[in-house]
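Need the bound structure for nicotinamide-adenine-dinucleotide, inputs here:
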Amino acid sequence: MPIRVALIGTGNISVANHIPGIGLCRDAQVVALSDPNPSALAEASSVTGVTRTYADPFALLKDAPVDAVIVATPNRFHRDLVVAAADSGRHVLCEKPLAMSVAEAQEMVLAAERAGVRHMTAFTYRFVPAMQYMHHLVTSGAIGTPWHFRAQRFQDWDRRAIGWRQRLSEAGSGEVGDMLSHRLDFAHFLVGPMRRVTALTSQIWPTRVDEAGVEHVSDTEDWVGCLAEFASGATGVFESVKTATGYAGGATSRDFCEVNGSDGAVIYELSHPLRVLRAGKGGNYAEEAVPAEFRKIAGSPRNSEADAWQGFRYDQDFEFIEAIHLHRACRPSFIDGLRVQEVMAAIQASAVEHRTVGLEAHARG
Ligand SMILES: NC(=O)c1ccc[n+]([C@@H]2O[C@H](COP(=O)([O-])OP(=O)(O)OC[C@H]3O[C@@H](n4cnc5c(N)ncnc54)[C@H](O)[C@@H]3O)[C@@H](O)[C@H]2O)c1
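Answer from helper R.:
Posting the output first, comments after.
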């Protein structure tokens, strides 16, 4: 019997990632949809052919015969939907950032663990082949002891209106949750927990302008910079920007991650998903193709050679379904989402209070 999946929130990311991702899974099927926006619901219904649709997600959770739920709404709704889904016994994949606060994220972890359901946070960029291979290189000791971690996400979104993302009340943060959260997950994935962070944030645009020329208030940061110390003693530098003039946007703009180790170094760039740059001690970087076994996660049904740019995003839906079939934890889980939420909160506190913020409990794991 296939795993029956509901999509809650059928906007951009459900259409771009989750509908095709679940569509590729042999033993899963989207069977129900929910969105309060009739046009988003109609589009997802026409793409999937699914006619069991709900304006109210809680009605879906009450009525629809589904085993698993993907929550892809604005961040403000994640906690209530995830807790309700877990309480009703459904496995849950939730978009990032997991929640609006650490307390909410903790509640979500507890609800999922209490219910004994599978839980996953959509840190999509872990699934880029170059990041999968980088993870292998760093964690297998191929570059020795990691000394320095560096991540940059530069895009130029100019002053265009970005809907709920520019409202603190719906997003919880700006660039910190929107783009930096993925790179904080890279840091955990590659180097481990952090001990303390010192951060600055900056807001360039107090209003953003929609297609009709109407200005809408924005109260979220457009830029974040952060220094970090890992529990291992390694150092980290992060910069994530929506107003990086010169960098355009999307998958080809700068998404860079580097680890310098005692014996070598490695660089990931989203703009080159099928290669890393690698250097030995004392040497310069040279290109290295991602080996075949890292081009998709084990067992993934997709053709990794057909679509290097979009296809890796479908592996996260495969991972969710596979974990349900195999009764094992998802990678990454809500616990990974909670750990990122803790660092996000420390970064926000550091930026507001102009101080270094410790993550000692976090670093002890
Ligand atoms: N993993 C990634 O790479 C990635 C990329 C983009 C967005 N996201 C995350 O995905 C989530 C959605 O982002 P998006 O870009 O698709 O936004 P979006 O605005 O395109 O879509 C969100 C949809 O949720 C619907 N919605 C609002 N309230 C709802 C509710 N209570 N119940 C059900 N549906 C509701 C909206 O009508 C809209 O159609 C956010 O958490 C965002 O951070 C993740």
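Comments: Residues 8-13, 34-37, 40, 57, 72-75, 77, 95-96, 122, 124, 163 surround nicotinamide-adenine-dinucleotide (CB under 6 Å). The CA atoms of residues 195 and 231 lie 5 Å apart.
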